[in-house]
Amino acid sequence: MVSTPKVSVCIPTFNGVSYIRGALDSVLQQKYQDFEVVIVDNCSTDQTEALVAELSSQPEKIRFFRNEQNIGLAGNLNKCLEHARGEYIKYLCVDDMLLPDCLEQMVA
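The chain above was modelled as a monomer; its predicted structure follows.
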């Protein structure tokens, strides 16, 4: 049985290899820990998928999906939502980072 996290942090990405490390680290370093990370790659042509696999130090928290074809930003945001299991959704652009207490404050 898979536990349902309170928060799904959704990271839509396309060619985000230069940024994904910072975004993912900022999520994994949250004070509030009842979350999953849903990364949906929109057919990147860079090494995004390989880097995410390398960075998945907490595989139970990180879920990676790759679209079969590029579906545009709006479609990729919706695809993130389809994969999310949390009660709450926090979108995080691949080139952004969260402050350590972001999820804690948002859940409260």
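The longest strand covers residues 7-13.
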